Amino acid sequence: MSAKPTINPWLVAPLVALAAFMEVLDISIANVSLQHIAGDLSAGQDESTWVLTSYLVTNAIILPVSGWLSSVMGRTRFFVACIIGFSISSLACGLAPTLGLLIAARAIQGLTGGGLQPSSQAILADTFPPRQRGMAFALYGMAVVFAPAIGPTLGGWITDNFSWRWVFLLNVPVGVVLSFLVTSLLDDPPGFTKARAEKLRQGLKVDYIGFLLLAAGLGLLQVVLDKGEQEDWFSSPFIFWLSIISALSLIAFVIWEFGQEDPIVDLHLLQDRNFGVANLLMFLLGFILLGSTVLLPELVQRLFGYTATLAGLVLTPGGLSIILVMPMVGKLVSVADPRKLIAAGLFICAMALLRMTGFDLQTDYGTFVWARIYQALGLSLLFIPINTAAFLSVPPDKSSAASSLINVSRNLGGSFGISLVTTALSRYSQVHQTFLVAHTTPFDHAYRSTVEQLARSFQRLGNGPAEAVTKATGQVYELIQQQALMQAFIDDFRMLAVIFLAVIPFVFMMKKGTPHGPGPAAH
Hints:
This protein is mainly α. The protein has 2 domains: about 400 residues, MFS general substrate transporter like domains (Growth Hormone, Chain: A, Up-down Bundle), CATH 1.20.1250.20; about 55 residues. It is about 75% helix and about 0% strand. The protein has 21 helices and 2 strands. The chain has a two-stranded antiparallel ribbon. It is globular. The N terminus and C terminus are likely disordered.
């Protein structure tokens, strides 16, 4: 993809970044609206979560095949089709009269929106020469990293002040403008057009088996990750059999694709050392970005009584700091070894997470915000260098396929991250509660003294002796639950920090290099 000859490529970068921002935003913006959706459409809370799951499932299916679809339809045509489809399905979501129709519209929204991220990234890779890709990826990175941070805050504000329907309806005017601008400004590069024409001349071969295996594998995996904790994982036959079918489908998919001349997903790209390691790192970036983005708001809401909007504001300054830092990283990546920047980013993220292990029940808002800003500085050093290193050895005609794979890695990492941290939080909380309860017996002096003091306080408020003791015991148990949950959050932060530190050595498996060169033709 390239801009038309008279168009400055720096007009292209914010355009495609906005398209990616719109799609990534819709992954998280509806989360805080689920209660309103359930109430308005007369549905249960568990039923309403399918509004999120349906989007994630279809999004996971379309992401890896978007590169192949671009090569068949033409990248500009595919990109515009995705924007139009996303806008129409957003309109259907906003007008849906029942939960069933909303879920169906969200599935279509995920299906059409899934091509926006990889197409945007492929456009940037082909439009800008290697030495300028850092700044171009900075704009894209600001979009896809800032969107999950601002999503809950924006969604909460729209829902509280207008209606949950406007969470979806806002996409429509943006989509109309984007469709017009993309059609006017972008065109497929000659090399891509020539390769597409040759492919069509030889006869279109559709890898139906590969697609069905991929759809079953990733679609069911997304359901497992999204519903696993709710269904108590493998104790549920539903989750157990979905996991088995998903695993077998993905194994069969990998074997099948490596044997195809024209695979629907070009897994051979992963054999390149730089690209393979970059996908691992991008998986971890999604893991930590969305995992910690879920943990911090949940912490302040469950233990400190923050509203959804205030919880979102804990994340927003971190997102703003990413916007400020990423352009500097974009310039730095053109002259520095991307591996060192990635290693520094991983280390800073780990240190920020270890700092979060110092949270307690007296921590104030400012401390939460600064801890997130500290972490955001590390995240800023990851996205651009990883993408830059990944595309160093990718041929221009493979940029769409490469972009599809690396976006799949980030999205899967986010799904695994959210699933792992929420499950670990539940398990750790039970362990700590069991330990603390074991020490709260009538034979423990501290426990007995605390109950007696609280009982006397309740008696002074007019409660009888027996009632005062019951209330005192209940308050102590509530304190135990709070402490257990606080310790569980700390354990989660520590676990994520250890994972990041453990990954640093893998960064140096990548080949050394800086993104110099005149442009895509240099490949």
